[in-house]
Every structure is written in C-alpha cells, then in structure tokens.
Amino acid sequence: MTSSPSIMESFFQRSLDDLIKSLRSPLLSSSPSHIISKSLDDIRRELRSTDPATKAVALQKLTYLSSLHSVDMSFAAFPVVELLSSPRFAHKKIAYLSASLSFHPGTDVLLLIPNQLRKDLNSPNPFESSLPLEFLSVASTPDLARELTPEIFTLLSSTKTHVKKRAISVIHTFFNLYPDSVRVAFKRLVENLDGSDPTVVSTAIGVFCELASKDPRSYLPLAPEFYRVLVDSKNNWILIKAVKIFGQLVPLEPRLAKRVVDPICEHMRRTGAKSLIFECVRMIVSSLADYESAVRLAVEKIHEFLVDEDPNLRYLGLNVLSILSSVNLWAVIENKEAIIKSLCDADPNIQLEALRLVMAMVSDENVAEISRVLMNYAVKSDPEFCNEILGSILSTCGRNVYELIVDFDWYVSILGEMSRNPNCRMGEEIECQMVDIGTRVKDARPELVRVGRDLLIDPALLGNPLLHHILSAAAWVSGEYIEFSKNPLELMEALLQPRTNLLPPNVRAVYIQSAFKVLVFTLNLYFMERDCIMSSSVVDLLPGVSDSVTETHCLEDCNSAECKVSVEEVKLSVENDDAAVTHSILDNVRLTCESITCMWNLIKLAMELMSGSEEVEIQERARNVLGLIHMLQEIPGFLIQNEVAFERIDPKATELVKLMLDAFSEELGPVPMNAQEKVPVPDGLTLDENLSKLDSVFGDDLPFSHGFSIQGHQHKETDGVPRFNMMNKEELEPLTESTSLLAQHRQRHGLYYLPTENEPESNDYPPANNDLQSLVNLVDAAEDLVKLTEPSKKPNRAKPRPVVIKLDEGNEVRAKTAKSVKDSKDDLISGVVRDILLGDGSKPISSQKSTSNKPPHRRVKEEGDSSSTKSKENVVDTQILIHGSPSSRKSRHRSSGKEKSKSSQDNKEKDGKRQESSRQKTHNDQYSLLFTTLCCYQGEDLEQHLVFFCNSSSYELSSSGFPEESSLVMEVAWNSH
Amino acid sequence: MGIRFVLLVNKQGQTRLAQYYEHLTIQERRALEGEIVRKCLTRTENQCSFVEHRNYKVVYRRYASLFFLVGVDNDENELAILEFIHLLVETMDRHFGNVCELDIMFHLEKAHFMLEEMVMNGYIVETSKSNILTPIQLLDKAS
C-alpha cells in the first residue's frame, strides 16, 4: 500500500524534458513565469515523496529552473541531503549537482552531511568519490575542512588519478578555510609535482600558481621543483602555469632569473602554441626585462602578434607591449607602424591599447607630430574613442606642469582645435589647462587671447553645453589678458552678445567680470590717447617744451609695458602729421568717440538687464560694473560728443579709471603646493625659547604626522642634517597647519628654512597671500616657468616636486598597513607554509609537526633520487656533467667548513649559557647528517641533493637567524648546478 | 582560482548553462549575466574575444548560435582559455554529434558533467576528450 502513491506519482510525474518542452512551446497561452510557478508547486510536492526516483526527477527539474531561470532553490536543501545518501549513483549524482549549485557556506544543512561525504570519499569507485570532492571545492566551510582534511590527505596519494587531481584542487580550498590543513597536507601536495600523470601535475602546479600569486616569497624554496617541471614537462597547460609561477618568483630572487631565462626562451622558440608563447613573452617583459636577448626574442614574437590577422593576438600583443613600454621604449618605437595602424581597428579595446602605447612614445620632440596624428584620428573616430584620444593628449601634455611642451603657442591652438571637435567632452580639463597656462606661461598669453576670442565670437558655440567650461576659460583669459587683444571692442560685443543667456550662471558671472576688465582697459586706453593727442596739439602750439612733457606724463600714466607700446604707437601716429585726426590706431582698430560711446551704451544696457537677474552671482557682478558706470557718468563732460574739442578730459575720470585698472593689473599666479611655507612669521608672536614641552603635543596632534612623529625625537640633534633636509620636504605637505605651529618649527630649524625677507632670486611659485614681496616673486615665477619649459633648465623644475613625492609616500605607508590587515588570512597560510618548508623553530614544535618535519624531508629526497634517475635528459643534470664536479665540490667543502665552524661556535655559546635546546640539536644533527651524506654523493646525485639541501635546510637557517649562511648554501647549490 | 565561471548563452542572451566556481547569490548571478551578455553579444566578429569586466576578464567565443563565456582572473592566459573553450565544444561535439543549443538544453546535466570533468575548483583538470567522456558513457550504459 505504501508504494502505491509513489508509483502513481512517478507514473504521472512530468519529467525534465516535459518541463523544458512546455517552457519552449510557444503555443501555450501561459507565460513562462506561469509555467515555472506551476511546476514549482509540483516540485515541492514531489520532493516530499518517499520514492527516491520521484525525488530525483523533482530535484533535476528544480536544478534546471534554478540555474537557467534564477529560481531560488534553497527550500530544497533538505531533500538534497536525503538524496545524497541514495545508493544509486544516478540519484547521488543529481543530488551532488544540485548541492554544488545551490549550497553555500551559509547553508544550515551542511552540518548534516560530513558523514555522508566521508563515506562517499572513501568509496572504492573513483567516480563516486569524486562527487563529494566536486562539491567540497564549491561549498566548503572551515568546519567541513577540519572534519575532512584526513580523508583528503589520504586521497592525495590515491592511485586513481581521477580522484587524486580532484583532491589536489580541494586541498587548496581547505588551505584557505582551515590553515592547519597546510601542516598536514602540504608535503603531499609538493610530492604531486613530481607525478607521472600530467593532469595531476597540471592540477598541482595550478594550485601552486594560485598560492604563489598571493604570497610568492613562501614558495621560493620550491623553486627547484618548479624548475624541474619547467624543463621536463611537455604539456603546454602545465608549462603555462610553471612560467606564471616563475614570473612571481623571479622578482624576489634575481639568481633564479639567470636559471630560467634559457628554458623559457627555449620554449618560446620550440613551441607552436600561441598561448605558451604569449605566457613566456608576458613573463619576460614583466620579470626578465634585464635580459637583452630574451627581450629581443619576446619583441620579435610580439611583432608577429601585432601583424597577425587574429584580433585576439593583436590585442594581446599591444597589451604586453604596454608592460614593456616603461623600461624598454625601443620595443614600442620599433613597432610604431603596427601601433598607429591599430588606432583605427574595428575593436575599441585594441584602439585603446594602441592609444596608450602611442602616448607612451611621446617625447618633447615628437609631441607636436603625434598630437597632430591623433587629432586627425579623433575627428574620424566615434565619440567615445575621440574623447579617449583628447583626454590622453591633455593628460600627457599637461603632465608635470607641461614638461613636454616647448611651443606653447602650438599647444594653445591645439586646445582651441579640441574645443571645436563636435564630440569633445573634455571641457573641464581644457578649461583648467587654459587658465593654468595663462597664469603660468607669460609667452602663451597672446595666443591664448587669440584662441579665446575665436571661441567667444562664435555664437553657435554658446548653445553647446559641453563647451561652457571652455567658454568660461576663454572669457576669463580674454578679460585677464585683454592687453593682448587686437580688438577689445569686438571682444566686448562677444562677451555681451544676447545668446550668453544660454550659459549657466557661473559662466555668465565670468563673462561679466571679463567685460568689466575690458571696459576699464578700453576706457583707460582711450583717455590716454586723448591725452597724448592733446599734448601733441600742445606740441604744435609750443614746440620745444612738448616732447619731454608728453614723455613724462605718459610714463607716469602707464605702468605697464603694453600701455607704453600703445602710447608709442599713438605718438607715432601723431608724429606722422596726423594731428588733426583725433583717433589713434591700435592694431587697426579705431577707438573713436563713437565707438566708445557705442560700447558704453552696450555695456550699460546689458548690465542693467543683468542686474535684475535671479542669480546672485550675476546680479552682484553686474551691479559692480554699473557702479563704475554711474560714477563716471556723474563726472561732467565725461563722454565728449564733440571730437574736435581739445580740452582735457576731467582728471577725475582718468583717475577713477586708472584706479580700476590698477585693481585689475595685479597678475594672478598659480598657487604652489608649498605656498604655506612662505607665509611670514607674524610680528609680535612670542615664541617660547624652550620647546621641549611641546614635543609631547607634537607627538599626537600635529597634522603632518607620519615621518614627523616617527622621527620626532631626533630633532634636537644638530648633526642630522641630511635627515632634516628630508623632513623639511615632508613638512611642505600640510596646508592646513596653523601659522603659529609653522613659525615654531621655523624658529627651531631656521637653518633649513628659506629666509623670509630677502629672497629675490627665488624662482619658486609665489605664495597665495597678497604681500608686496610676493608680487615681485610672482612675476619672477611666471618668467621662470617660461624658462623652465626650455629643456636646458629642466633640473630646476624638480623644485616643486618633492611635495608630491611626499604625498605619495604617505599614502603608500597607509596602503601598506591597510593591506597587511586585510591579508592577515593569507599570511596565516603562508606562515604555515613557511613553517613547513623552512622548519621554523621559533615557535614551539607541536607533536604533529615534529613527526611530519623530518620524515617528509626524507621523502622528498627519495623522490628526488628517483626522478633524477628517471630523467637523464634533465637539463640540470647535463649541465652538471659538463661542468664537472671538482669545483663545485670544493666550494661545497669550503662552505661546509664554514657552516660547521659557525654552528659549533654557536653551540659553544649556547652551552655556556644554558642547556642546548632540543631545537638546536635537531639543527646541528641535520647539518652534520646532510653534509656527510652530501660528501658521499657524486655527479647527478650530488646535484639532486644539493637542490634538496638548498631547498630544505638553507631556509631553516635563514629562519633561525643566519641569513648569510643560508645564502651561502643557496649559492653553493646554484653554482654547482 | 583561475576560472571563475563558465556561461553558455544563446544569441538572444538567454543563459543555457551556468557554472560558477565561487559563491554568488541568485541576484548577483542574474546581474552579472545580464551585464556580461550585454557587453559581449554586441561585439562583432572582427573584434577581439576579451572583455574586461569589473575586476576580472571575460574570454568568450561564439559557435553558431551559442556564446561560450568564461570569466577568469586577470592574470590568466587568455589564449589558453580560448583553447579550453574550443576543447569544451569539441568534447560536446563528440558526444552529441555537432552540438546545438537544444542538446545542451535537454542534456544540461551531461553538459555539467563534462564541465565537471574538465574543470574543478577553477582549475583545468582534464584535457583529454576520451577521459572526459568516459564517465558519461559509463553512466549512459548503466541507465
């Protein structure tokens, strides 16, 4: 009776195929989600069935729905566990599949299955025992790992490769979850590197590759094993992993590089597999970049990749080349053509890589040429890549305060050209650079103003929101450096054109301010002209007195060179007997009374309109301008309609305008990183003579903490000059520190500060404050920067850099500490690995370890023996034969003598103080044993043992505090190879 | 870990097989599949088969209407993964005889089985087609 319902169920149960068919069938009106929910109901019911077959089919369906239709199947965890214990393999398999797809470390039922897993692991059927292994690799927990480590340990030496290789990959998961398993199983894992079955070796080396990528140093002692794999294996999968491992190890142990460079090159020449070639190339460019011949070979291969039809190879070739670009630029330049060609590849990824490489090739000589090529590409390419190009031009050219740029006029015009690119989205960056170049590079200003004018004058650009940033910069530059403008009136019209209302308020504010500057400049110019004309008319009347008067007067008036120039022009025109003409020529522009009036009315109208704006920024600035306008208007006879009038303009108006001009004439400079340093000590600040009391305060709450607090106690020493220099740099960093603290510091280490008062030769950037001295510096600084752009003065540029370097250093320290906290788990594993590989005696030796410590060594040794006899073609062996052993034996004797004397000395010391510890004893015993054994061996055997010895004992030494000895042993081992 | 996941997706972007070697919740899987499918399926034949996604790489290859997508760690060898994909396809071909989407849909379990034989815990453990197929053939015989 009990079986009847289950028979019924299984009879009428819909199979997985039925489910799939119904899901696929378009005829049924019901939607897939409806079918899914309906079948889920069925599945729930079927899962409760007592019949394992019904249950299995239900689970199968559920697994299908879960993995392809994202149905949550956590509710079925218990039925899965039930089915795990089914005696039928097919059912078991379904259960394991759904378990490994749905279980995760947080699943509760995991507590129920260790016994079942153990039972299956011990099954004689390899397919059955690999099922739980599969599952464990996905859903292990630390508890499961602890419980099952012994089983996995047994399986690691299983005779069935099918099981063995799976056990190897599971043990890696266990290492992560339960670091103690490393103690138990690590040696066996190492042994598997010597296996005869390539799939086992492949898995094992895969595990080591993974482990080594987390902490390569711990696996250095295994280098001989990996080396054997590298030279012996014929399997590309294995070789790729072995090459990868050496890629990790070589940077840590330069002597390894010498050993592996030949086999790797050999693989590269021999193999036809692109994947292996690629791996070797990547390893060489990242870890063996010092080996000229290897790099040559790698570059050859890269070239083959670059010209291949397969986009994959081209991409990878470019990718590898970019690793190489930092150290071996010649390789990039050699492949220039292929790279440039890749810029118009169909694949954006390839384009990007090519772009990166092109930028790596840029130098101050070819920057113009390359930028030209790229700008042309930018026009042709799609918006996204276009902006990548523009962005990389901007960042490359702007690097280190434009160190690559010699011709700023050219660069500024490139900026203008970029702005015209319809896809350009780099507005902000262009804005920054335009303003920055304006403040830093004096010689570039005329060109900047020209470019700015071209942008401002085009009403079409105002409608493009992407350009607003650039327009803002253009407006600022035009206002600030209006003296370079060829036509201020035109500029004024551009700044006040009606379409400017399309701009965002912050940009409009810049426009107004610029218009203000233009207005003041133009008025001043106009007044001066009139003055000159008038004086020259006086000259006509009273020849003789005139010249000097005009001269002095004009000189008084003009404080900037530009004004002088214009005045001279005016004078020139005057001297040309043109006295009757009342207008002057400023680069072919007539500043007539009408034009000024026209401008006057224009700006008045515009400002009145804008003073009613809702935006405070706009309103306020418009009011400022209006204020000046109103003031000038009140002066009688300000704008003389009658041109022929020879009377002087009211001096009050001239004065006012001059005053405003003076207000704008102060040049704005870039603010350096170390501006704070130049803040002068305020007068009347009483400083305590003895600052020792402050030391404790400095210790905890100084903002510039790192280097300072660490080295803080050395401050009082007067002999630490180099150290202080360094510290001085460090202190340039903080911009937030209070002046008083800085002053205190200055008092103590005044020697290392620049003098506050007299530093006219300083070529540093000016401070941000407004004191008069700084103004002088400011002009100097700008000039110096111009000089700095010339290659001959390059070293000077290094001056503002230290601050940047300091910032980086600070970050690095922080990052390091953060990392060490994060990686504590990895450290745990590698700590244990080191314990095992090195036999570290600093910790108390647990019983487990002491048993597993020595015997495994012997086991490895034996295995080494067998493999050496097995593989006569071993490269190492043949080398030994060629070299002959006498020399190596000699060096070995020497080293052994040294070691013995040292260790015996060590013993003596220990004897005198206390009883020889058991640890020490094992040490010495081991050495004497090893050395005597080594003396008995010759040729290949000797080599094998040296390798082993270097592998096991040298690091034992190093861990117990004799690094020089350990390196000696290393040396012996390697030399005698 | 090497391989993080293997996905089989059809031209319409529907997942046909998903095997993850690290734990992700259903929502995470769904999001990931969506993002990757969008990224890879829009690419053309003459673009390269590697896509960087988040902190790993996706190596993909298209066979008729099926896309094979494999997510790997950044330092994994891309070309080796392409070879792996090809091996997987060849193995499926040998078993199903010119494999198509329907074969995988109706024999999802077998497809998983093959994958399990080839990859374990993100490592490639078997590369011989006959070795991969042996247990499946045994199972077929038994049932």
Task: Explain what this protein looks like in three dimensions.
The complex is a heterodimer of chains A (977) and B (143). By secondary structure, chain A is an all-alpha fold. Chain A contains 48 helices and two strands. In chain A, strands 1-2 form a two-stranded antiparallel sheet. In chain A, a hairpin with a 2-residue loop joins strand 1 (585-586) and strand 2 (589-590). The model of chain A is unreliable at 539-588, 641-646, 700-737, 754-823 and 840-977 (pLDDT under 50). Chain B has helices at 26-41, 78-96, 101-106, 108-118, 129-142; strands spanning 3-10, 15-20, 50-53, 56-63, 66-72, 119-120, 123-124. Chain B has a five-stranded antiparallel sheet, sandwiched between helices. In chain B, strands 6-7 form a two-stranded antiparallel sheet. In chain B, helix 2 packs parallel to helix 5 and helix 4 (108-118) crosses helix 5. In chain B, a hairpin with a 2-residue loop joins strand 6 (119-120) and strand 7. Chain B is globular. Classes of the chains: A mainly alpha (977), B alpha+beta (143).
Greatest chain-chain interface? A-B, 57 and 52 residues
Q: Major sheet of chain B: order of its strands?
A: 2-1-5-4-3
- Which sheet architecture does the biggest sheet of chain A show? 2 strands, antiparallel
Structural class of chain B: alpha+beta
Task: Please give the structural blueprint.
The complex is a heterodimer of chains A (977) and B (143).
Chain A lengths: L2 H10 L3 H9 L7 H16 L4 H18 L7 H8 L4 H14 L11 H8 L4 H14 L2 H15 L4 H17 L2 H12 L6 H17 L8 H10 L3 H14 L4 H17 L3 H14 L4 H15 L4 H14 L4 H6 L1 H7 L5 H13 L6 H14 L2 H20 L5 H13 L6 H14 L4 H13 L10 H13 L7 H8 L9 H37 L4 H12 L3 H15 L9 E2 L2 E2 L2 H18 L5 H19 L16 H15 L28 H8 L4 H6 L9 H11 L7 H10 L23 H17 L5 H4 L3 H22 L1 H16 L7 H24 L4 H9 L2 H28 L4 H19 L2 H21 L3 H13 L2
Antiparallel strand pairs in A: 1-2
Helix pairs in contact in A: 2-3, 3-4, 4-6, 5-6, 6-8, 7-8, 7-9, 8-10, 9-10, 9-11, 10-11, 10-12, 11-42, 11-43, 12-14, 13-14, 13-15, 14-16, 15-16, 16-17, 16-18, 17-18, 18-21, 20-21, 21-23, 22-23, 24-25, 24-26, 25-27, 26-27, 27-29, 28-29, 29-30, 29-31, 29-32, 29-33, 29-34, 32-33, 43-47, 45-46, ...
Chain B lengths: L2 E8 L4 E6 L5 H16 L8 E4 L2 E8 L2 E7 L5 H19 L4 H6 L1 H11 E2 L2 E2 L4 H14 L1
Antiparallel strand pairs in B: 1-2, 1-5, 3-4, 4-5, 6-7
Helix pairs in contact in B: 2-5, 4-5
